[in-house]
Design goal:
Layout lengths: L8 H14 L3 H17 L25 H9 L3
């Protein structure tokens, strides 16, 4: 499909220079840039919470044996 796009002169000159150095056409360079932008849009950044577990998973939660009051004391001790 043909289309017309206004591109800043400096940017177009840089694109032409890059295309010459890499042996690509400006069209191929533009298409590659569009693909990269659209591909990045599809991949949201994956967020993972850091593991802040307490105790040893094999032995269970060490705070299970405490009452709520004792848990609070244990958690906030040393502050």
């Amino acid at each position: 499909m043909k289309t017309t796009v206004d591109v800043a002169d400096e940017l177009l000159e840089r694109a032409r220079g890059h295309a010459r150095r890499t042996g690509q056409s400006v069209r191929a360079l533009i298409e590659e840039g569009l693909r990269l932008v659209l591909q990045a849009e599809r991949k949201p950044a994956e967020f993972r919470l850091p593991d802040r577990s307490v105790g040893d998973r094999r032995n269970g939660n060490p705070l299970e044996a405490f009452s709520w009051q004792d848990r609070g004391d244990e958690i906030y001790r040393g502050r």
